[in-house]
Write a structure and sequence with these properties.
It is a single chain. By secondary structure, the protein is of the alpha+beta class. It has a single domain, classed as B-lactam Antibiotic, Isopenicillin N Synthase, Chain (Jelly Rolls). Helix content is 26%, strand content 19%. The strands form 3 sheets. It has an 8-stranded mixed β-sheet with strand order 2-3-11-8-13-6-5-4, with helices on one face. Helix 2 packs across helix 6 and helix 3 packs across helix 6. The radius of gyration is 19 Å and the shape is globular. The two termini are 35 Å apart.
Length: 331
Amino acid sequence: MVDYRTPTRALTPVLDIAGWRNGRDKAAVAREFDRICRTIGFFYLTGHGIAPATMRGMLEQTARFFGLDDSVKRSVLVDRRRRGYEPFGLQSLDAAAPPDIKESLLLGLDQPADHPHVKRGLANYGPNLWPTERQLPGFRTFCEAYFAQVFETGRTLMSIFAVVAGLPEDHFEPILADPMATLRLIHYPPQPNAVVDNQLGCGSHTDWGAVTLLLQDETGGLEVQDANGEWLYADPLPGAYVVNIGDMMPVWTNGAYHSNPHRVRNADPRRHRYSAPLFIDPDYDAEVSCLDAFRAPGEPPRLPPRSVGEHIDLMYAISYGRAAPGAMANP
């Protein structure tokens, strides 16, 4: 564990995907995506087409949920399918530090009871747990619409990556048909200036899947580590998401792309911080291995193939310990 130090330099890369979305310059967008992911793996995403009002609305809905009475939040307490409310102190993303100073709500795609993955008892599949319409009017409708819109943006990023790898744009569609994707609404209360035992709002960690699209409020507090180990602050950029690549990307790219550590500390003594990351995690059964474009003919992969579901199960088990919801769930 490294003692906490406040970053002094800002995250700067910006990827504008408007040229991809309108079809006018897909090649340039793909080249910039590749360049950024080879150097840091974190960037601000613009040109995504999601309205500022929708982004503000999601943050407002997040604050509404966490403003509910504790008894209401606990009525949708997280279950083994990794759906529902996670109270403070449940997770330690930095395994060497005390529990994170955050509470969250985990939401995914609603699958029916006869869905094959639900019948197998896999975590990250099944119905969401919602407060009632009377308790929080309009909350479910807004969250479901937001999930669908931002997930489409995540699929766009995966199409860009496919083109970088010399593959058809729809190459990754089969493993995104039944994804483990999760929208996580998070509340970070103000944290004292003195950091004790490296305990933060969210401890240092990498994300576990393919790509993450983070919506954060104006409070700030996100810090990311570059390939040289320097910590950078990633304060909000109006109208932009912060995107980072997860642990699947180095496997696909033979280590060329970086799944960089990041952490959160809400150091504002006056404000509560709210965020809503959407984790684009592929199908549980997807097998991730090195793509041909990222190695020379005959060159062996530097990283072994990885099962998406098994890796995410393992990371839940590590970061939650015995409290893990659905940790290491098996068919």
